């Protein structure tokens, strides 16, 4: 199967979808953004602005938006899904009848479906009637605010079908500022992208409580162990977590002012209730939903995830952030290497008494 042509549909017009649309336009493709919001579409078309999601960015002349799904998808040779995880299935259902059989499907959403705990490639495969092996996930250390301003960025596109991954690589990669690697480990890339948002919430909590770099470094490192442990139990390749989609994305999300999850965690540490934090954010904070999903996945796969467990208690059970940190620090002593090593489902299970 070959993917040729120049028209791309981006569903939806949030910050990341808009930033990736800029990359595609810079690479010579025509792009149509789809949004439910008529005022947002008008602003993009008239002013070349997306003020809610990227208020400081001037968008390129070639970027246009529509609220008509059929119009956005008409003639598309690639469809890029960037809907929130909670809306992915619904958006795919609206799109399916307008997508050609040979159209390349890519998604760039970092999360799980809350009810089913399914990864986004699985959700898209089910709704679009596609082989999951051909669906591509784009992930890695990348803030929309930097990509839209053409700051140097490197990401990964993953698919079990190497032809699909390479086709996506061709669409996105350029020599100016956006470098793209391929990876066959879809499970590893998707779990890394989703669960790192939980650790970023924790990093925001740590900073909001006034803890220093020592605490955050430990949180990031032990967070990577948790990501690797659950991912290994789900069938991922442990090496993926040492790469861009793993440690790279984890670092950028836990340390940057652009991170929504970090900002949400910081506000929680200041005593704001979750509902007020989400209201103030005004945008989806994937780490909140992902915390519940990962908590449930850990139980399903018999994997212990202490950081996730404590954040779940803070978000959904009313535990104070300070108390959560105390309980993490007061856990029974154990061996670091035993905790971190994850190479198979069994290694995830063997670590039940660790971390």
From TrEMBL:
It is found in: Cytoplasm. Residues 185-326 form the Glycerol-3-phosphate dehydrogenase NAD-dependent C-terminal domain. PROSITE patterns: NAD_G3PDH (PS00957). Pathway: Membrane lipid metabolism; glycerophospholipid metabolism. Residues 8-162 form the Glycerol-3-phosphate dehydrogenase NAD-dependent N-terminal domain. GO terms for biological process: carbohydrate metabolic process; glycerol-3-phosphate biosynthetic process; glycerol-3-phosphate catabolic process; glycerophospholipid metabolic process; phospholipid biosynthetic process. Its EC number is 1.1.1.94. Keywords: Cytoplasm, Lipid biosynthesis, Lipid metabolism, NAD, NADP, Nucleotide-binding, Oxidoreductase, Phospholipid biosynthesis, Phospholipid metabolism. GO terms for cellular component: cytosol. Gene3D superfamilies: N-(1-d-carboxylethyl)-l-norvaline Dehydrogenase, domain 2, NAD(P)-binding Rossmann-like Domain. GO terms for molecular function: glycerol-3-phosphate dehydrogenase (NAD+) activity; glycerol-3-phosphate dehydrogenase (NADP+) activity; NAD binding. It catalyses: sn-glycerol 3-phosphate + NADP(+) = dihydroxyacetone phosphate + NADPH + H(+); sn-glycerol 3-phosphate + NAD(+) = dihydroxyacetone phosphate + NADH + H(+). Substrate binds at residues 110, 260-261. NADPH binds at residues 15-16, 36, 110, 144, 260, 284, 286. NAD(+) binds at residues 144, 260. Sn-glycerol 3-phosphate binds at residues 110, 140, 142, 196, 249, 259-261. The active site is at residue 196. Catalyzes the reduction of the glycolytic intermediate dihydroxyacetone phosphate (DHAP) to sn-glycerol 3-phosphate (G3P), the key precursor for phospholipid synthesis. Belongs to the NAD-dependent glycerol-3-phosphate dehydrogenase family. HAMAP family: NAD_Glyc3P_dehydrog (MF_00394). This is Glycerol-3-phosphate dehydrogenase [NAD(P)+]. It comes from Cohnella faecalis.
